[in-house]
Specification:
The chain is mainly α and about 120 residues long. It contains 2 helices and no strands. The N and C termini lie far apart (about 115 Å). About 0% of the residues are buried.
Length: about 120
C-alpha cells in the first residue's frame, strides 16, 4: 500500500528537537519582552481562563439581524415576485377583455367615420 504525498508538501519539514520547560520559557520571555510590557504569561496557568462576558441582549439582537437580514431579504424578494406573478396572471384575462373591447370600439368608430365621410352612392 503506497500513500501518495500531497504535491504542496514542503521539502524540509521542521521538527521539534528540544523540549522547553516552563521556567526556561519565562526566563526567555523576561529577556525578550519590551521593558514597558509585563512578561508573558506562563503556558502552565494556575487559574483557568475566564470566559468572555456575555453580550447584552441588544448586541445579540444586532448580531442576529446582521446574519439573518440577507437571507430574509432574499426570501422576501422571492415571495414578493411569486405573489406579483400570480396576481398578474389572475388579472390577465380581465386585461385582455378590456383590450379586446377597446379595440372593437375603436374599429367600430373608425368604420363609422369612414362610412360617414364617404359620399353617398347613387343608384344607377
Amino acid at each position: 500500500m503506497t500513500d501518495r504525498l500531497p504535491p504542496d508538501l514542503p521539502r524540509f519539514l521542521p521538527t521539534l528537537t528540544e523540549v522547553v520547560q516552563s521556567h526556561e520559557l519565562e526566563a526567555l520571555a523576561d529577556v525578550a519582552g519590551p521593558p514597558d510590557q509585563p512578561p508573558l504569561a506562563s503556558p502552565v496557568a494556575s487559574d483557568p481562563p475566564q470566559p468572555p462576558p456575555a453580550p447584552s441582549p441588544e448586541a445579540l439582537v444586532e448580531q442576529v439581524m446582521q446574519r439573518v437580514t440577507p437571507l430574509l431579504q432574499a426570501r422576501l424578494r422571492a415571495v414578493t415576485e411569486t405573489w406579483l406573478h400570480e396576481q398578474l396572471r389572475g388579472l390577465e384575462p380581465a386585461l385582455w377583455e378590456r383590450v379586446t373591447q377597446a379595440v372593437q370600439a375603436d374599429v367600430v368608430r373608425a368604420v363609422a367615420q369612414t362610412l360617414d365621410a364617404s359620399p353617398p352612392r347613387s343608384a344607377d
